[in-house]
């Protein structure tokens, strides 16, 4: 493939080589760029100023290089940012959700980056601002709110923030009578907490030095946090932990899980000093979730071979495995995603034939009904309710052409009430766009769904550029939902497409299993198959496809770059997990032990080592004709550490035989999620879209 010279000449950073070798299962690897990992990386997460000056100098050189190569897109970036910002209602507000005497919601003010949390009397009236994110963020280069939870007596607010991007959250308690925070301050938490029944204290998880939530504590208001009661400690570093509660405020649930196994421990919210009671002991491959149901718990589980999950019940006072009874049986091909319990109803969100649906069940009679929708492809979300004893449930709906709509649904009368339609201030006419659902044949005959949108005037003759997005890991399905940002590409003649590849649960749990561990290669070949199908169907051409993915989707980008560089005209890899083998061999990293069920354990298993080594992007960089590549990262990212893309970029430049540039942009003041403000995040998207437009020759369109 001949690639046009579209970038100005500039000298790319070339970090020195410092060979470092490791040997596992008789295989020795040499890594010339291992030194880019700071020895004090744990300290850097909390204080970026302690980063090794040599590493900092190199990262700053990378930023200078990408800025030089993208300097001619400055005006385009401003235009894109203006368009995307113009599609956002700046002073937008959620529809408050009722809880007792109040209704709680969130809003933004004109020009505001951070949300404000407010409440009104139950049936509306003057707002009381409980927490102003913009005010709290003043003077901070980075700021992201964590959990915000009011107490059941409506007197206090538990809230958290991260001001480094490293996801170590600090918890505060606010007195809602005067708006002041109490002296209670707890650092290094997971980002939220759950109130005890009498609101005199709360439960929370604390992160250890390796960023793992390994301990659940109870904090009594006014007490010294160093003396908080240890409620439960998880000894296995391969399991993460979270703490949650029920809307009836009866139970505290400690959830322990990795990517294939789960376990719960319960205690009553009114008995914070009690020992948590085990529900069902962890058993490799057994997954279950608990949802309140008054005198029972609803249990969503894959027990007994229910691959696509079933719903069971158990008495709330003794919900051990022996007492589980089937309520909604397993149906192959119908994946039950979540369950919400109410006093008289149970609601489940499920996916069948690749599309989501909501099913409402009357508990007394067992009668069920579907909430129906008309479009060919769409996205649904369950918002539920703050209240348990109610007949009103809230859900959201959107499609690639339909702005998000929020409904209240009366489960008894089956009446839906439209509360809000997403407003696009700059205007949106759905009739100007076409959305399609295609099926791409994979190498083994499976059909891979593709959701796409394009302008009605875009010619389908192979001339259109395309941004093809993919993820394909952890069972996460990418919804075909409304995305105002992508319209800036679509209005410039792009086809915007989502590849629903294996590794997600878009076509059921088996779709996930066929894209993990030993079958992980299916994820990558599926994505390449979708690109080839789009070309075969006349939607685009290979040199006009820009592939995009982030995190594990960034690993996808690295893999397809090695496997089929000729199939893409450009690649955008955001916070890319590209040094998979090295990271899975390092048990000290925050996510490594819990990730072994997803990728395999190359320390213990030679087979897992070989499987990962076969696709790990960093290990498979070759002398190939790579397209232009843009990698993005955050210095304090605890999920995909900055040195993974830094090393990958260095090796790509060393090995590639093409003249196409490899750009690396690193945010020195953020982590995995990128910029924390809503508008600063748009600036990052404008940058990536400018790259896509540049490599496809559409900068002037």
Give the arrangement of secondary structure elements:
Blueprint: E1 20-24, E2 27-31, H1 41-46, H2 53-69, H3 74-86, E3 97-99, E4 102-107, E5 116-121, E6 128-132, H4 133-137, E7 144-150, E8 156-162, E9 169-175, E10 181-195, E11 201-207, E12 213-220, E13 229-233, E14 240-245, E15 251-257, E16 262-268, E17 277-278, E18 288-293, E19 296-301, E20 310-315, E21 325-328, E22 334-341, E23 345-352, E24 355-362, E25 368-371, E26 379-384, E27 392-398, E28 405-410, E29 416-421, E30 433-441, E31 447-455, E32 466-470, H5 487-490, E33 495-499, H6 509-513, H7 521-536, E34 545-550, H8 552-563, E35 570-574, H9 580-584, H10 592-599, H11 606-615, E36 629-634, H12 643-655, E37 662-667, H13 678-695
Helix pairs in contact: 3-13, 7-8
What does this structure look like?
Keywords: Hydrolase, Protease, Serine protease. InterPro entries: AB_hydrolase_fold (IPR029058), Pept_S9A_N (IPR023302), Peptidase_S9_cat (IPR001375), Peptidase_S9A (IPR002470), Serine_Peptidase_S9A (IPR051543). Pfam families: Peptidase_S9 (PF00326), Peptidase_S9_N (PF02897). There is one protein chain. By secondary structure, the chain is of the alpha+beta class. The chain folds into 2 domains: about 25-85 and about 425-695, Alpha/Beta hydrolase fold, catalytic domain (Rossmann fold, 3-Layer(aba) Sandwich); about 115-285, Methylamine Dehydrogenase, Chain H. It has 13 helices and 37 strands. Strands 30-31-33-32-34-35-36-37 form an 8-stranded mixed beta sheet, with helices on both faces. Helix 7 (about 520-535) packs across helix 8. The longest helix has 18 residues, at about 680-695. It starts with 19 loop residues before the first strand and ends in a 6-residue tail after the last helix. The relative contact order is 0.11.
């Amino acid at each position: 493939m001949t690639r046009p010279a579209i970038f100005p000449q500039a000298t790319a950073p070339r970090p020195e080589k410092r060979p470092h070798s490791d040997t596992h299962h008789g295989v020795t690897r040499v890594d010339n760029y291992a030194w880019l990992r700071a020895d004090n990386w744990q300290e850097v997460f909390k204080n970026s100023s302690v980063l090794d000056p040599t590493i900092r100098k190199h990262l700053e050189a990378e930023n200078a290089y990408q800025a030089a190569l993208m300097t001619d897109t400055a005006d385009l970036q401003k235009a894109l940012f203006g368009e995307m910002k113009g599609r956002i209602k700046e002073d937008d507000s959620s529809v408050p959700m009722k809880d007792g005497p109040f209704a709680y919601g969130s809003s933004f003010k004109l020009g505001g980056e951070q949300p404000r949390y407010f409440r009104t009397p139950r049936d509306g009236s003057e707002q009381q601002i409980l927490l102003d994110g913009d005010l709290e963020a003043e003077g901070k280069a980075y700021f992201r709110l964590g959990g915000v939870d009011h107490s059941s007596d409506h007197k206090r607010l538990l809230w958290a923030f991260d001001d480094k991007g490293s996801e170590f959250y600090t918890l505060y308690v606010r007195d809602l009578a005067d708006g002041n925070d109490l002296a209670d301050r707890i650092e290094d938490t997971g980002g939220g907490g759950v109130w005890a029944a009498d609101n005199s204290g709360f439960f929370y998880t604390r992160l250890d030095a390796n960023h793992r939530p390994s301990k659940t504590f109870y904090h009594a208001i006014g007490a010294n946090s160093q003396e908080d009661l240890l409620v439960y400690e998880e000894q296995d570093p391969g399991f993460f932990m979270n703490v949650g509660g029920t809307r009836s405020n009866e139970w505290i649930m400690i959830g322990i899980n990795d990517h294939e196994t789960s376990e719960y421990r319960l205690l009553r919210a009114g008995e914070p000093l009690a020992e948590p009671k085990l529900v069902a002991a962890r058993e490799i491959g057994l997954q279950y979730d608990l949802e309140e149901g008054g005198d029972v718990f609803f249990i969503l589980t894959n027990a007994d071979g229910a691959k696509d999950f079933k719903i069971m019940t158990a008495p709330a006072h003794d919900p051990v495995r022996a007492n589980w009874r089937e309520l909604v049986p397993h149906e192959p091909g119908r994946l039950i995603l979540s369950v919400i319990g109410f006093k008289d109803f149970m609601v489940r969100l499920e996916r069948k034939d690749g599309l989501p649906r909501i099913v409402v069940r009357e508990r007394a009679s067992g009668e069920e009904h579907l909430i129906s929708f008309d479009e060919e492809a769409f996205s649904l979300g369950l918002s539920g309710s703050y209240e348990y004893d109610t007949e009103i449930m809230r859900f959201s709906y959107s499609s690639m052409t339909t702005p998000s709509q929020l409904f209240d649904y009366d489960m008894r009368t089956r009446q839906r009430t439209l509360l809000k339609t997403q407003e696009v201030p700059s205007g949106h006419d759905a009739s100007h766009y076409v959305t399609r659902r295609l099926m791409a044949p994979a190498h083994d005959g499976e059909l891979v769904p593709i959701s796409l949108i394009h302008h009605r005037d875009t010619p389908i003759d192979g001339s259109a550029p395309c941004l093809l997005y993919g993820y394909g890991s952890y069972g996460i399905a990418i919804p075909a939902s409304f995305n105002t940002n992508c319209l800036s590409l679509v209005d410039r003649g792009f086809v915007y497409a989502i590849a629903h590849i294996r590794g997600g649960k878009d076509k059921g749990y088996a779709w996930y299993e066929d894209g993990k561990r030993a079958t992980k290669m299916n994820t990558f070949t599926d994505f390449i198959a979708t690109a080839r199908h789009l070309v075969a169907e006349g939607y685009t051409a290979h040199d006009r496809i820009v592939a995009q993915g982030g995190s594990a989707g960034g690993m996808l980008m690295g893999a397809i770059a090695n496997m089929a560089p000729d199939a893409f005209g450009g690649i955008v890899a955001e916070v890319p997990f590209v040094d998979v083998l090295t990271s899975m061999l390092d048990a000290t990293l925050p996510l490594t032990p819990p990730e072994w069920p997803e990728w395999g354990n190359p320390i213990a298993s030679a087979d897992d080592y070989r499987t990962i080594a076969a696709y790990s992007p960093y290990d498979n960089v070759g002398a190939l004709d790579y397209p232009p590549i843009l990698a993005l990262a955050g210095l304090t990212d605890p999920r995909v550490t900055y040195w993974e893309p830094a090393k990958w970029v260095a090796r790509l430049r060393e090995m590639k035989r093409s003249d196409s540039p490899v750009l690396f942009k690193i945010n020195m003041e953020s982590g995995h999620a990128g910029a924390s403000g809503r508008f600063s995040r748009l600036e990052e998207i404008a940058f990536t879209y400018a790259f896509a437009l540049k490599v496809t020759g559409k900068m002037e369109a």
